[in-house]
Sequence to fold (596 residues):
Amino acid sequence: MGKIVQCVPNFSEGRRIEVIEEIAGAIKGVPGVKLLDYSYDKSHNRSVMTFIGDPQSVLESAFQGAKTAASLIDMSKHQGEHPRMGATDVIPFIPVARVTMEDCIKLAQALGRRLADELSIPVYLYEEAARKPERKNLSSVRRGQYEGLLTAIREPERKPDFGPAEVNPRAGVTAVGARPPLIAYNINLDTGDVSIAQKIARAIRGSGGGFPTIKALGISIEETGKAQVTINVCDYRQVPLHRVFELVKREAARYGVAVIESEIIGLTPLDALADAAEFYLQLAGFDRNQILEKRLLE
Amino acid sequence: MGKIVQCVPNFSEGRRIEVIEEIAGAIKGVPGVKLLDYSYDKSHNRSVMTFIGDPQSVLESAFQGAKTAASLIDMSKHQGEHPRMGATDVIPFIPVARVTMEDCIKLAQALGRRLADELSIPVYLYEEAARKPERKNLSSVRRGQYEGLLTAIREPERKPDFGPAEVNPRAGVTAVGARPPLIAYNINLDTGDVSIAQKIARAIRGSGGGFPTIKALGISIEETGKAQVTINVCDYRQVPLHRVFELVKREAARYGVAVIESEIIGLTPLDALADAAEFYLQLAGFDRNQILEKRLLE
Fold:
């Protein structure tokens, strides 16, 4: 197998199952693409689909998903807790194997062009694909949401990267981007004191002066009554799982608190685990092609 | 991708490159098989080939390799430092993905039957495929080597599992078996005192009262002047890399010696690395299907 790109579009539909399934069907219908997972949330009124394949198939599949969403979702009637601005709200491309970030940025540009030209949807490029620094951050791209953008889109600094400076009344606006794989990673502490988890979260996250690629919160887990540091590892090549784990363990020890366990939620690239094994086993000169299964993907 | 079996036959030829390449060519010539690696050693006069594929293709490929070796290698003239008894000396089948040890034992039986019937080569089943306890161990199967077996093969307890109780004068005798993946794993110590490495090796290996699936020696590395514990991890599901590493580190500390690094030589299954990551990150509830690349092998 050759180049592999992952794509994780978010759609503004989390209630009408038949709509979600029609979008999933459009994505799966493209040969060369494998839909790994989809989930939806009623209160957010939003669904997330995860698929992989070769770059051209993934591009086509993302377009087909967005086209189907545009025909079935009417943003002028949409309500939900999660911020949103389009029927297809965001489409990130993620390099997985034998693909660079640059390749994924080009996919984002090509898809943005098609959404604008063929479906009249205004498109903002975000994260690694952003052409303006302030568009790196999705929340500033989405500021005002669908309703606010109806007028704000006409401001010069909000001009879309592709398509008209006019919200598509039904399909809204879509953000298309490129980013590294995100790993959802939780660390469970042996304490019921959520303030300790909050202090640790603050110490490691970018917004607290910690690692720029780490987002973290301290929360309480109802089932166990224990505190948890819930983390987004946004670029495991910058800050790997083992560095996060060791740092949280060390910070917890300062309060006399032990780490019970950690959890990876959803998918992780193989390399993130291999990085941890290399670190802890002090592996020297290890080539990832020594992994038997990697040879089968060639 | 579906079922995957690995096969690592050893051939009694390490000097005539053209013979080695002809055997490699016979193995590669079977569709569905990927030859990952081959190496040879002049003083051992022996070569090792590593290939993978679906079970039936791997079986056919192993047969074609053995057939070619039987036509090009004359054991009555063979000399070399490594113990040996056949042109194709040993053929182990190794489960890699979606294949059980039982499947590999059946492959060994089917190949043994063919080598006996079509090439008149006596075959012993060894390791997990052994039908007698004393044949689990390859060195007792090979006791006496080619020259000794010329007469010893007629003893009732040495009767082959397949084929005549008579050594094939040119092709000799072949051992066919099934075993877990073997990981060649070295740990380098920050000392020039080889006796420390030897004491640690004795403490961890089965023959010293340690783990039955661990073989280990203490040696000195000429380039660095440092001591090394060189290890065969014969069944990483029984005794994983991290347990070996942590134990060696602890035993070394008793002599005030630090571990510099470890090395995996050659191939390793992905699961052996994932096991280490799970252990050190204290990962709870991790399913290997959360590894993105695993989903591509389905």
